[in-house]
Design a protein that fits this description.
mainly alpha, Cytochrome Bc1 Complex, Chain D, domain 2, 2 domains, 9 helices, binds heme C
């Protein structure tokens, strides 16, 4: 009797363990499959049509940080994030329906759209912070971030470490805080450790600094560039003014009606 109870609880532990391990396993498999594909840019452009609705045809997202700039991001990072979001290894309730196999496709389409996005020129005017604590920000960056994100925030292609230069300040802030409080499940454990002592002032200072690092000239779009692949896309005039759905103001937990 005793023995079977032991066996049963051991079994349920294993099942529970598998449920926890499963999402990242699925994401990893998809990442590896997509990495083996030869990307088709023309198909990537077609797939990107549904992404453009939120990330904008240029891939520049919004200053408000509601949607990140994806243009110019390293292809390996794009593939990993797509695989994680789709496997629910990174929560993104707004975007997850658009990553279904019916809409996005499989590993080939992930490789295609990642290659398309990676070659888009980046915004010359991303959202930046208040600019009041940049010396502290620079010091913190040099002491804590270069090892992984590179001297200028360019990331590391082979290790799928994100490029963070030129990203909207408010998006950086949200992701950094979610990584710090371990709300982003795919967070890098070493990064979490590295930043756990950061104060609010430190966080704002370092990310303001990062948002102001200009990507190399050849990665930036020229003034007034519009993506010619989407000539008929209706661009609301408010698009780059910081208006938009404020995802960071979403309540963390639904509250009970009073
Ligand atoms: C309905 C809006 C919406 C659509 C459509 C959408 N996304 Fe997103 N996407 C988002 C939001 C919101 C985030 C940021 C979520 C967060 O804050 O964690 C995001 C994040 C991302 C990220 C992570 C970026 C980073 O640096 O962390 C990638 C990559 C991405 N999207 C690619 C795509 C691709 C490719 C498509 C099309 C197949 C797509 N998205 C379609 C809303 C959307
Ligand atoms: C040990 C390596 C490491 C260190 C140190 C590190 N990071 Fe990261 N960081 C990562 C990895 C890896 C990711 C992506 C995790 C994933 O796969 O989703 C990441 C993600 C991020 C993101 C989210 C980017 C996006 O597009 O979603 C931000 C912002 C960020 N790091 C900022 C920083 C800053 C600022 C510092 C220094 C204070 C720092 N990181 C230190 C490895 C590191």
């Amino acid at each position: 009797m005793r023995k079977s109870i032991w066996a049963m609880s051991f079994f349920s532990l294993m099942v529970a363990g598998q449920c926890i391990a499963e999402p990242s396993g699925a994401a990893m498999r998809e990442y590896e499959q997509a990495m083996e594909m030869t990307p088709d840019l023309e198909n990537g452009r077609k797939v990107y049509r549904i992404c453009a609705v939120c990330h904008t045809p240029e891939g520049w997202g919004l200053d408000s940080g509601a949607y990140p700039q994806v243009a110019g991001q390293l292809a390996t990072v794009l593939i990993k994030q797509l695989a994680d979001i789709r496997a629910r290894n990174r929560d993104n309730p707004t975007m997850v329906p658009f990553t279904s196999p019916q809409l996005l496709g499989g590993a080939q389409e992930i490789a295609d759209v990642a290659a398309y996005i990676a070659q888009l020129p980046m915004s010359p005017h991303n959202g930046v912070g208040p600019g009041i604590d940049l010396a502290l920000g620079e010091q913190l960056y040099k002491d804590n971030c270069t090892e992984c994100h590179g001297e200028t925030g360019e990331g590391i292609l082979d290790d799928h470490i994100p490029a963070i230069y030129g990203q909207h300040y408010r998006y950086l802030l949200r992701q950094f805080e979610w990584i710090k409080m371990e709300r982003r499940r795919n967070a890098d454990k070493k990064m979490v450790k590295q930043i756990h002592r950061f104060t609010h002032r430190d966080i704002r200072a370092v990310l303001d600094y990062v948002s102001r690092i200009k990507p190399p000239k050849e990665k930036l779009a020229t003034e007034g560039w519009h993506n010619p692949d989407f000539p008929n896309f209706a661009r609301p005039s408010t698009m780059h003014s910081g208006a938009g759905y404020m995802i960071d103001q979403r309540p963390t937990r639904p509250s009970r009606p009073r």
